[in-house]
From TrEMBL:
<dbReference type="Pfam" id="PF01498">
    <property type="entry name" value="HTH_Tnp_Tc3_2"/>
</dbReference>
<dbReference type="InterPro" id="IPR036397">
    <property type="entry name" value="RNaseH_sf"/>
</dbReference>
<dbReference type="InterPro" id="IPR052338">
    <property type="entry name" value="Transposase_5"/>
</dbReference>
<dbReference type="GO" id="GO:0015074">
    <property type="term" value="P:DNA integration"/>
</dbReference>
<dbReference type="GO" id="GO:0003677">
    <property type="term" value="F:DNA binding"/>
</dbReference>
<protein>
    <recommendedName>
        <fullName>Transposase Tc1-like domain-containing protein</fullName>
    </recommendedName>
</protein>
<feature type="domain" description="Transposase Tc1-like">
    <location>
        <begin position="4"/>
        <end position="47"/>
    </location>
</feature>
<dbReference type="GO" id="GO:0006313">
    <property type="term" value="P:DNA transposition"/>
</dbReference>
<dbReference type="InterPro" id="IPR002492">
    <property type="entry name" value="Transposase_Tc1-like"/>
</dbReference>
Amino acid sequence: MQQNICEATTRTTLRQMGYNSRRPHRVPLISTTNRQKRLQFARAHQNWTVEDWKNVAWSDVSRFLLRHSDGRVRIWRKQNENMDPSCLVTTVQAGGGGVMVWGMFSWHTLGPLVPIGHCLNATAYLSIVSDHVHPFMTTMYPSSDGYFQQDNAPCHKA
């Protein structure tokens, strides 16, 4: 049974049913294995107290763009306003640059913030661990009761 259905009729019907065309939210892809590991971690630590969590030092890598965001920008404008300065987004060649940093913190204090001059690979990560993590953990947790928590990115497995 093949029938042609008008696209406009389909859109109208969907709108009448309460649906609207929207961009989907972006979420990180989590594999089945990592989903299981996260659940295992949550179950193992579900009874931790605030005092237990005070012994954890957290770390992560972040990238900050200097000129624009990674996502698409949307504006509301009238049809004839496409070149109005308030409706333009400036661009630069090569993306405008950015900076990547690695940092850590604990309940007690902020740790070092280390600029990453290139892609963070296993060798660079091990250098950060020896130069920054070990001294931080030794200073903050002198009785060796601290835990270093990272997000298990591939380079962190080194």
